[in-house]
């Protein structure tokens, strides 16, 4: 037998952590993935599993020692036929007693004891939030995830990696703008490999954290794809080719969404969706973005900052139709340099993939033929529900294909809940998290309801746009009289000092009740500030409440208070409002 050393594996940010348990001694036989030691940091306890099976020859650690990556744990005589050692990894809780069974096994008999109290399908923000909340409430939880890591689209190929790249893009462009203020840097160069590594590191840090969170809560994570066998059981196609049937008491569907594929686009590696764009295959000389929503604008920002010449085509007559027109126009003026052509009220009619370029024909505004190296299709997303066969469980859908749920996130089948993108727009991670908490609590018998008045949205472009509630146009379309308070950052000390005097904060109030019903911000850190407007709407605040709340000076956040003062007609940071003269004659 050969002797193999087992060392402490990569643990993310954890280092110099204490050994609190040692589960082995010389002469013990250990199996693959058996826990050898347990470490404890100030944040979590971490199991270190065996990367191979064999017999312990020596143990080099003791309780109370502090270790980091690479510290020697033990020497093992590898068992014959035990296979090559694999790198040790931090593992989730071990599988529960339910064993894999052959596909096609008959459904469990009615009244069969469930394998878990709550089964969650999908490990994205809505799914893992539901699973962790249910576990915190004392439930036995199984979480089924089709991908190799938890986190879903948002964490792995969506919100998080895109924000990592947007951060880099914003810093690069801010550094370039500093030349106008007397600080000049050398022309930057882009190392794509390092940039990809940075993005991947951000994602790995968070996905590793989710592994630890699942283990601490004893949430069993099953890797595979799920299909409903009936209203009480799920068949899982496992990664190793086997299958497993899980009987559940309650289930929460959090399967997420997938990009809409435009049918006229050819199958070509130079035509990508958001996932492909985030892989940064190369920096194109010319790039086309199809779709003027959040994803399209964010990816246009990234690739433009990295040096691509970008065109954007949007079929509607405006970008971001859910945002006030004057706010979007502020953003558009600020980003005029970013696009060679920004075409609204236009559409792509055809794409021909040639050897050296993609030939695109458009109609509407700016109609013509243009040539590109890369095309991003960002024309929306659709719920990822087809493979689940939810009809077998008595779950119903609306006309747009979303799962129908009530305020407790229950479907037509009272034992099955649904959260996140599968339940409809807006498809946002923070909405899914709140729905996940509601579903988990309702599934355990608590009287929880999804009763949020508003859900905020943010486009993390440069500058950011954040909005919540009703726009001025939407309110007027409903016949509501409104009062509007707009504060231009050209009158903000912090806005001017930060070079953000183009920014704008806008609040919309109901003229009858004087309560705030909507708001939008365009400028740096807009996404960080929109929460105050959300809270004001939830609390039923009026302009006086907001305006008389003392905001720190000089900050960008105080523009919210000043916008409320504008609505009240009491703002002293802008010229006085000219009053109508009344003749007494």
Automatic annotation (TrEMBL):
Class of enzymatic activity (EC top level): oxidoreductase
Gene Ontology biological-process entries: 2-oxoglutarate metabolic process
Domain annotation Lipoyl-binding: ranges: 3-77
A GO molecular-function descriptor: dihydrolipoyl dehydrogenase (NADH) activity
Cofactor binding, note field: Binds 1 FAD per subunit.
InterPro entries: 2-oxoA_DH_lipoyl-BS, Biotin_lipoyl, Class-I_Pyr_Nuc-Dis_Oxidored, FAD/NAD-bd_sf, FAD/NAD-binding_dom, FAD/NAD-linked_Rdtase_dimer_sf, Lipoamide_DH, Pyr_nuc-diS_OxRdtase
Cofactor(s) essential for the protein: (R)-lipoate; FAD
Signal sequence segment: none
Keyword terms: Disulfide bond, FAD, Flavoprotein, Lipoyl, NAD, Nucleotide-binding, Oxidoreductase, Redox-active center
Enzyme Commission code: 1.8.1.4
Annotated NAD(+) binding sites: 291-298, 314, 380
Alphabetized Pfam families for the sequence: Biotin_lipoyl, Pyr_redox_2, Pyr_redox_dim
Catalysed reaction, written as an equation: N(6)-[(R)-dihydrolipoyl]-L-lysyl-[protein] + NAD(+) = N(6)-[(R)-lipoyl]-L-lysyl-[protein] + NADH + H(+)
List of residues binding FAD: 163, 421, 427-430
Paired cysteines (S-S): 154-159
Active site location: 553
Further information: The active site is a redox-active disulfide bond.
PANTHER family, per the entry: DIHYDROLIPOYL DEHYDROGENASE, DISULFIDE OXIDOREDUCTASE
Homology family: Belongs to the class-I pyridine nucleotide-disulfide oxidoreductase family.
Classification via NCBIfam families: lipoamide_DH
Name this polypeptide is given: Dihydrolipoyl dehydrogenase
Organism of this sequence: Aminobacter anthyllidis
Highest classification ranks of the organism: Bacteria, Pseudomonadati, Pseudomonadota, Alphaproteobacteria, Hyphomicrobiales
């Amino acid at each position: 037998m050969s002797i193999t050393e087992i060392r402490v594996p990569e643990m993310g940010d954890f280092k110099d952590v204490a050994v609190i348990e040692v589960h082995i001694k010389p002469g013990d036989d250990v199996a693959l993935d058996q826990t050898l030691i347990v470490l404890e940091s100030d944040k979590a306890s971490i199991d270190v599993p065996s990367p191979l099976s064999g017999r312990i020859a020596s143990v080099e650690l003791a309780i109370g020692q502090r270790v980091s990556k690479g510290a020697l744990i033990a020497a093992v005589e590898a068992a014959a036929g035990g296979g090559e050692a694999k790198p040790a990894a931090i593992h989730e809780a071990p599988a529960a007693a339910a064993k894999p069974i052959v596909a096609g096994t008959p459904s469990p008999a009615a009244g069969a004891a469930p394998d878990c109290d709550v089964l969650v399908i999908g490990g994205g923000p809505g799914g893992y939030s539901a699973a962790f909340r249910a576990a915190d409430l004392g439930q036995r939880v199984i979480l089924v995830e089709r991908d190799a890591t938890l986190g879903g689209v948002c964490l792995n190929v969506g919100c998080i990696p895109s924000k990592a790249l947007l951060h880099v893009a914003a810093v690069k462009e801010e550094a370039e703008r500093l030349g106008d203020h007397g600080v000049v840097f050398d022309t930057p160069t882009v190392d794509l490999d390092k940039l990809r590594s940075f993005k991947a590191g951000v994602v790995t840090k968070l996905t590793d954290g989710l592994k630890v969170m699942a283990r601490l809560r004893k949430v069993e994570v099953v890797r595979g794809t799920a299909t409903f066998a009936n209203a009480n059981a799920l068949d899982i196609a496992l990664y190793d080719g086997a299958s497993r049937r899980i009987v559940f008491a309650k289930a929460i569907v959090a399967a997420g969404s997938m990009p809409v594929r435009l049918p006229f686009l050819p199958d070509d590696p130079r035509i990508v969706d958001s996932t492909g764009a985030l892989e940064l295959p190369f920096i194109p000389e010319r790039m086309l973005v199809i779709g003027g929503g959040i994803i399209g604008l964010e990816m246009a920002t990234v690739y433009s900052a990295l040096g691509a010449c970008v065109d954007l085509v949007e079929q509607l007559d405006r970008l971001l139709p859910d945002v006030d027109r004057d706010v979007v126009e502020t953003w558009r003026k600020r980003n005029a340099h970013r696009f060679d052509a920004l075409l609204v009220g236009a559409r792509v009619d055809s794409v021909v993939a040639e050897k050296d370029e993609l030939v695109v024909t458009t109609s509407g505004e700016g109609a013509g033929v243009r040539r590109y190296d890369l095309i991003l299709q960002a024309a929306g997303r659709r719920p990822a529900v087809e493979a689940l066969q939810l009809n077998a469980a008595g779950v119903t859908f609306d006309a747009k294909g979303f799962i129908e749920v009530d305020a407790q996130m229950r479907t037509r089948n009272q034992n099955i809940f649904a959260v996140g993108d599968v339940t409809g727009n807006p498809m946002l991670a923070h909405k899914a998290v709140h729905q996940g908490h509601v579903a988990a609590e309702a599934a355990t018998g608590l009287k929880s309801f999804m009763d949020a008045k508003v859900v905020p949205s943010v486009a993390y472009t440069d500058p950011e746009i954040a909005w919540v509630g009703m726009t001025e146009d939407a309110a007027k379309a409903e016949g509501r009289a409104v009062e509007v308070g707009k504060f231009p950052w050209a009158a903000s000390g912090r806005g001017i000092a930060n070079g953000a005097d183009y920014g704008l904060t806008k609040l919309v109030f109901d003229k009858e009740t004087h309560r705030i019903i909507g708001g939008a911000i365009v400028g740096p850190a807009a996404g960080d500030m929109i929460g105050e407007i959300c809270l004001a709407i939830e609390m039923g605040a009026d302009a006086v409440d907001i305006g008389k709340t003392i905001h720190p000076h000089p900050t960008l956040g105080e523009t919210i208070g000043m916008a409320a003062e504008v609505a009240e007609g009491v703002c002293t940071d802008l010229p006085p409002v000219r009053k109508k003269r009344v003749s007494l004659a």
